[in-house]
């Protein structure tokens, strides 16, 4: 079987991806305690870039201390983070991939003991997993966080990110605003749950208009009262109208964790239908994720026009050369679906992989 579709270049705004494979943003907890790039992160991303992916999205990068999802995540809330990220993005580019950055505010899906700040959310409803009651954001708080996303975008552009992704999936803060599951507000941000996100996109575009924006959403949250494809198709259209250049489709929240990182027994490409549904509603490229474990299957997705880009994470963690080895029919270290890389569910401090001891 050929791989013509997955290795076809794709232009997004002013950037050109050499192929359709993306290493998506992934929580590693390998940054320093102040959110700075470490040698271990440089090594990981450098090998991934050399391994053949068309784009590497570094992240999740917290826009503030308050919004950090873990203890040792990358941050971009101070100018001191620009230079280390510049080295990281330079390394990714030199090894053949387009460097990108994902920006996040965790909202209610973190803990104040980790951030040193009270949790904030669209409504004062605790995440059923984290269980801590957040403070409902007022107008000033909303504008402050939107400004934090803008400032973070300016900084990652200065650092050399060629694409910026805004994390609106998985029930984090932006996703929390999008969903009736977590947003019970009665003001304009409750009556129009996409407004918080569209305002961020518009404000970011004003400052970094020449950098393409990807917006990641959960196509279906798989929780009672949460987002489903019928609504996320409409949300995706709103995001495109606001200025999104890519819609990245994931699934789930912390309360439906299995859909955030689906296991093999859930089926191959378990969420491709969500990407296809959203692709039919927008005119910008759509990225899909979820149990895409071979280039042959990735090529099938692209050739059948079910998505324009494929996010492949765990197979590339298991073997950073997964893409190049697959293309040349060489054996590679296969992901065994052991779940070790989802370290926070196992009580571990950071990501590891038994298939890739150098990670």
From TrEMBL:
> What InterPro entries does the entry give?
Aldolase_TIM, NADH_flavin_oxidoreductase, OxRdtase_FMN_N
Q: In this protein, which residues make up the domain named NADH:flavin oxidoreductase/NADH oxidase N-terminal?
A: 6-330
Q: Does the keyword Cell inner membrane apply?
A: no
Where does the source fall among the domains of life?
Answer: Archaea
One Gene Ontology molecular-function label: oxidoreductase activity
The answer to keyword Flavoprotein applying to this record is yes
- Report what the protein is called: NADH:flavin oxidoreductase/NADH oxidase
């Amino acid at each position: 079987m050929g791989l013509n579709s997955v290795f076809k270049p794709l232009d997004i705004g002013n950037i050109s991806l050499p192929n359709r494979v993306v290493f998506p943003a992934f929580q590693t907890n390998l940054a320093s305690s102040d959110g700075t790039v470490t040698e271990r992160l440089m090594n990981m991303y450098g090998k991934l870039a050399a391994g053949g992916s068309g784009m590497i999205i570094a992240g999740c990068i917290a826009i503030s201390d308050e919004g950090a999802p873990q203890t040792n995540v990358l941050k971009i809330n101070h100018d001191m983070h620009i230079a280390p990220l510049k080295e990281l993005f330079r390394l990714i580019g030199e090894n053949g991939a387009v460097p990108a950055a994902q920006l996040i505010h965790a909202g209610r899906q973190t803990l104040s003991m980790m951030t040193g700040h009270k949790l904030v959310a669209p409504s004062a409803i605790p995440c059923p997993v984290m269980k801590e009651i957040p403070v409902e954001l007022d107008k000033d708080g909303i504008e402050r966080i939107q400004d934090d996303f803008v400032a973070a975008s300016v900084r990652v552009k200065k650092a050399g990110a060629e694409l910026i992704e805004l994390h609106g999936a998985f029930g984090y803060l932006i996703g929390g605003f999008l969903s009736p599951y977590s947003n019970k507000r009665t003001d304009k941000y409750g009556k129009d749950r996409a407004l918080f996100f569209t305002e961020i996109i518009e404000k970011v575009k004003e400052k970094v208009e020449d950098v393409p924006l990807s917006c990641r959403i959960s196509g279906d949250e798989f929780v009672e009262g949460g987002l489903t494809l019928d609504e996320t198709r409409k949300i995706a259209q709103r995001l495109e109208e606001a200025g999104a250049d890519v819609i990245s489709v994931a699934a789930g929240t912390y309360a439906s964790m299995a859909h955030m990182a689906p296991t093999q027994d859930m089926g191959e490409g378990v969420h491709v239908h969500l990407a296809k549904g959203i692709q039919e509603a927008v005119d910008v490229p759509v990225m899909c994720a979820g149990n895409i474990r071979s280039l042959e299957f990735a090529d099938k997705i692209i050739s059948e026009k079910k998505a324009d880009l494929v996010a492949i994470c765990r197979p590339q963690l298991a073997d950073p050369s997964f893409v190049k080895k697959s293309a040349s029919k060489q054996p590679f270290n296969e992901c065994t679906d052991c779940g070790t890389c989802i370290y926070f569910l196992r009580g571990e401090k950071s990501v590891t992989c038994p298939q890739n001891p150098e990670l």
